[in-house]
Amino acid sequence: xxxxxxxxxxxxxxxxxxxxxxxxxxxxxxxxxxxxxxxxxxxxxxxxxxxxxxxxxxxxxxxxxxxxxxxxxxxxxxxxxxxxxxxxxxxxxxxxxxxxxxxxxxxxxxxxxxxxxxxxxxxxxxxxxxxxxxxxxxxxxxxxxxxxxxxxxxxxxxxxxxxxxxxxxxxxxxxxx
Length: 177
Fold this sequence. Notes:
Elements: H1 2-11, H2 18-30, H3 63-79, E1 105-111, E2 118-123, E3 129-132, E4 137-138, E5 143-148, E6 152-160, E7 166-174
Antiparallel strand pairs: 1-2, 2-3, 4-5, 5-6, 6-7
């Protein structure tokens, strides 16, 4: 025990640091002082004005084209040659089906009357906020709501996939920040 105590006290003793101090002083004298490079010039931000709001979105199928697809599907069904998925041509369209999914914004969620079902609040391009829940439809591609969570609305759309053919596609509408 005495040996360990002596070794610990020997480690705390003042050591000769003159060599270290001499090295630091010599390094300070011999190393040239270099000024840092000036910061890069920041160009001012120039805003971009998007002017194609009224122009048709090239990535959306036009409503008249969807109607033609429905007619072709109905003709194929009448002949008995169509067996795939298809939108219901007799279903009454809901209010939010006249807007493309990209133009709709999820604004939040709420529960009505302490119920279990979660409703989503969706802002339409006309500035009106609509409430939707599971099994409602939105978007121009027959998008049926499968699930509503705090962060997003999950949908299954039915989109044209060639003359008289349709295909299901999963998509979502997420909460805007």
